[in-house]
Amino acid sequence: MADMAPIFRRKPAPHERLVTLIGKPDCHLCEDAQLVVEKVCGELGVPWEGKDITQDRALHDAYWEQIPVVLVDGRQHTFWRVDEGRLRKELTD
Description:
Blueprint: E1 19-23, H1 28-44, E2 48-52, H2 57-63, E3 69-72, E4 75-79, H3 84-92
Parallel strand pairs: 1-2
Antiparallel strand pairs: 1-3, 3-4
């Protein structure tokens, strides 16, 4: 489906999306990001998961300077601060 022209691609339903929040314990930016992710995903019916860089060496190596990091469908959407409007737009457009 990735080869298809954008006009022919089916837009995924909210429940088919996945938001991943990568952070670590005792990180105030991560806590702030989680509040935004919980709110937006809850309102739109989008599942989300949290991943802890202190428990996963590959995530630590990839993202330790950027946390919190938000991935949408496995692709990096943002880092440090999560903008509610921008995340909502990403999940609905």
